[in-house]
Amino acid sequence: MNVLSVGATIVKDNRIIAGGYNGSVSGEVHCIDEGCLIQDGHCIRTIHAEMNALLQCAKQGVSTEDATIYVTHFPCLNCTKSIIQAGIKTIYYAEDYHNHEYALKLLDQSGIIYKKIPFNQHHVAQYLVNKS
């Protein structure tokens, strides 16, 4: 099974406060070492990148209120709900990935800004030119 590599970074007041990637629970074997533990088409060993970043903030006692999260892929429904509950106000993502209809509805209802910003050479160059 091909596993999607996802990363997430949480930023508040122009500072990175946490980062995460999809991986196993601390102390558990990693899928790249022993293969995925698949049930119903999903690896049950995996914690999503967004959750890893949010949990890192919780563990360190860092508030995510009004923060921004940058994610490689659109968050799943459960991660979307956690992002909303954590008080994050903006989501930037590079790629669509099973964008759940209810997740989109929740984001619209909550007033969270979410925007797709494709990560490719053209967009990065355009951003750098416009920034200077």
Structure in words:
- This protein has five helices and nine strands; from the N terminus they run βββαβββαβαβαβα.
- With 132 residues, it is α/β, with parallel strands linked by helices.
- Helix 3 packs parallel to helix 4.
- The longest helix has 12 residues.
- The mean pLDDT is 90.
- Its cofactor is Zn(2+).
How many helices does DSSP assign? 5
Counting structural domains, the number is 1
Based on CA atoms alone, the radius of gyration comes out at 15 Å
What's the CATH topology name?
A: Cytidine Deaminase, domain 2
The named CATH superfamily: Cytidine Deaminase, domain 2
What oligomeric state do these chains adopt? single chain
Computed structural class:
alpha/beta
Adjacency order of strands in the biggest sheet: 2-1-7-8-9
Question: In short, what is this structure?
Answer:
This protein is α/β, with parallel strands linked by helices and 132 residues long. It has 5 helices and 9 strands.
